[in-house]
Write a structure and sequence with these properties.
Layout (H helix, E strand, L loop, with lengths): L15 E5 L4 H12 L3 E6 L2 H13 L5 E6 L5 H11 L4 E6 L17 H17 L3 E8 L23 H25 L5 E5 L4 E2 L10 H10 L5 E2 H4 L1 H8 L8 E6 L4 E6 L9 H15 L6
Parallel strand pairs: 1-2, 1-4, 2-3, 4-5, 5-6, 6-9, 7-8
Antiparallel strand pairs: 9-10
Length: 300
């Protein structure tokens, strides 16, 4: 569909979604659209107070679906395990790996991993591994056009040996998310599973993601966010994720992004990705390394 919008989302009544980072930005817009279509959404967020405020705003609009808030700090692998354990055997139709941080100063997660790789990649990898047995339909990994300048350093994913660069670290994390999305689909296909793994990217969307570099770049990106000809609103940025999460006949392994202006804005459609993202041997090695770093074998 050339100009697919949230109005084209099929009825989601009776379906359960987990959306990480659902309290703001793309996660909020994703959750709002899903609840409006009748879904039950688990807002998986580090800050539960902000998530509950977001939840109230969503339901104040007389949304037809339901929601709940559950604490999830992707930067703490023990907390990821607690979240998954708390779900028990509850069925989940779609897991949306949305939460992320971008170009932040060097920091470490609770387990000592570089903050962007630990949060954007390892937290979601572990969450997906633990929740996958209960997922009925699909997983959506939110990547970024920044994957195109990413490089996977398997021997130094946590930036202990290299000189830390926040943008290169972000690019690595978003390339890793995309490679894991493709690798999961290959493994699902090999196992003849009907489940699907998708990926999406928002283009350039105006969110609070751009406010945490701790440099002059924050001020520049804030000005860019206010320029409507540069940044599209979060509601538009969320459309590729919503497309990947809800279009019934979408093929596993699809990558969805905005369709205009070099994928920076516009309505969602299948898009291409870098040659690196399709390197199968590297993806399999990354998968194994993520299993080692999380201490969790991932069986499909």
């Amino acid at each position: 569909m050339e100009h697919w919008t949230a109005a084209d989302i099929p009825d989601q009544t009776g379906r359960t979604f987990i959306v990480t980072g659902a309290n703001s930005g793309l996660g909020y817009a994703t959750t709002d659209a899903l609840v409006a279509k009748g879904a039950h959404v688990i807002l998986a967020c580090r800050n539960t107070a902000k998530a509950e405020a977001a939840q109230r705003t969503i339901h104040a609009a007389s949304a037809s679906g339901t929601s709940e808030v559950v604490e999830l700090d992707l930067g703490d692998l023990d907390q990821v395990r607690e979240f998954a354990s708390g779900l028990g055997d509850r069925p989940v139709d779609v897991l949306v790996n949305n939460a992320g941080i971008m170009a932040v100063p060097l920091g470490r997660t609770a387990q000592g991993h570089e903050l962007q790789f630990g949060t954007n990649v390892l937290g979601h990898f572990l969450l997906t591994a633990l929740v996958m047995p209960h997922v009925a339909d699909r997983v959506v990994w939110v990547s970024s056009s920044a994957h195109r300048f990413g490089e996977i350093a398997l021997d130094d994913l946590d930036w202990h040996e290299r000189s830390y660069n926040p943008w290169r670290a972000y690019g690595q994390s978003k390339l890793a998310d995309l490679m894991l999305a493709y690798e999961l689909q290959r493994r699902l296909t090999s196992a003849t599973s009907p489940k699907r793994s998708m990926a999406a990217h928002p283009g350039y969307a105006s969110t609070n993601l751009q406010n945490h570099t701790g440099t002059w770049q924050d001020r520049l990106m804030q000005r860019m966010n206010r320029a409507s000809w540069i940044a599209q609103p979060a509601e538009m940025g969320a459309l590729p994720t919503l497309f990947a999460a809800t279009v019934p006949d979408l093929a596993g392994g699809s990558y969805i992004g905005p369709g205009a202006r070099s994928e920076t804005r516009g309505h969602p459609r299948p898009v291409g990705s870098s040659a690196r993202s399709h390197e199968r041997e590297s993806a399999a090695a990354l998968w194994t390394r993520c299993e080692e770093l999380t201490g969790q074998e991932f069986s499909v």
